[in-house]
Amino acid sequence: YHWRHTKETQLSKFNQTEIEAMLGSYTKVLFVRDPFHRLIATFLQGMGSSPSFSSFVEDVLGSGTHNASAAWKPLVSLCLPCLVQYDYVVMFGFHRQELGHLLRRAGLSVDSLLPKFTDTQVLWTYRWLSEQMFSELSAQQKKKLSRFYRWDLSAFPFSSSYLSD
């Protein structure tokens, strides 16, 4: 196929037949993360110019889903899980367990290829950060964020997310 030799990386640049051939020939893995954790990470990395988390959230909500940065855009609009049949969905915080399974399925040695993850520490840190950051938001901001990420919260099992109803 000529698409194997092209520099294009976005599926939207290919026709439907090429897209179906590509997607059918690969194992598709989707890495997902709680949208509220994504917001926190983006804010802490300084990707927004806001002085507080609350004002950063206002900027995010003001951008709308169509003009949102990929750093905080809802996942369902980035990876189209309803259209692409992913073979695996790996949740942030469970990398060691899930990547070990993927490597074993591929017939690769887990011990030599899998980096040391500290999933438990990461989850604890984000729980604490979420609690702190969530307390900075008004009830209206919390409601708007839950609406902004409603499709992510429906598509993926983020049951412990602060944004879940």
Automatic annotation (TrEMBL):
Localisation per UniProt entry: Golgi apparatus membrane
Coiled-coil region list: none
Domain of life: Eukaryota
Transmembrane is among the record's keywords: yes
GO CC, any one term: Golgi membrane
Enzyme Commission identifier(s): 2.8.2.-
Entry keyword set: Carbohydrate metabolism, Glycoprotein, Golgi apparatus, Membrane, Signal-anchor, Transferase, Transmembrane, Transmembrane helix
Signal peptide range in chain numbering: none
Family membership: Belongs to the sulfotransferase 2 family.
Name of the protein in its database record: Carbohydrate sulfotransferase
Lineage: Eukaryota, Metazoa, Chordata, Craniata, Vertebrata
